[in-house]
Write a structure and sequence with these properties.
179 residues; alpha+beta; 5 helices; 7 strands; 28% helix; Lysine N-acyltransferase MbtK
Length: 179
């Protein structure tokens, strides 16, 4: 697959809630842990993120149309507080590709590559931190493909997670993409 170009825009919790609701409640998104969320639950969750200076939600666009969800957060203040020793320049990340009836080979890998390149466009970002569910083998393979190195399992209230890190240099070595 040729390299897909994506753009990013801030998520609008009200305008985008219906689209997000369809994505996060789909069985494919089980690890997103919003399977039983109502439309109002999704609006509320993303309004909280929009109001949070340490957590941001973005939509990834392909040809101007929403193609995936990306969240970035400051792990010193959200998600991983007390679970590891944050370093200056650490940025936490989540991403979600929506369900589709017509999967495109390599699409999700293109998405995570674009997400990582976007995060590393900020010169202050030195390392990306992720904490996927230990059972999510598909995302572990994607993470490895873009340079993440697992450090250890950690216990979060909602899951056992695989704490993993990727530096700018590891991303470049894994993908050949410079940010």
């Amino acid at each position: 697959m040729s390299r897909t170009t994506f753009t990013f825009r801030p998520l609008d919790p009200l305008k985008d809630a219906e689209l997000l609701h369809a994505w996060v409640t789909h069985p494919k998104a089980a690890f997103w842990m919003m399977q039983d969320a109502t439309l109002e639950d999704v609006e509320r969750a993303y309004m909280e993120i929009a109001a949070d200076e340490h957590h941001h939600a973005l939509l990834g666009l392909k040809d101007g149309e929403p193609a995936f969800l990306m969240e970035k957060y400051d792990p010193a203040h959200r998600e991983l507080v007390g679970l590891y020793e944050p370093q200056p320049g650490d940025v936490g990340m989540h991403f979600l590709t929506p369900p589709t009836d017509t999967p495109v080979h390599g699409f999700t890998r293109s998405v995570i590559t674009a997400v990582m390149a976007h995060l590393f466009e900020d010169p202050a970002t030195r390392r990306v931190v992720v904490e996927p569910d230990v059972r999510n083998k598909a995302v572990h393979a994607l993470n490895a493909a873009v340079g993440f190195v697992p450090e250890r399992e950690i216990e979060k209230p909602e899951k056992t997670a695989l704490l993993s890190f990727c530096t700018r240099e590891q991303f470049l070595a894994a993908t050949g993409v410079s940010a």
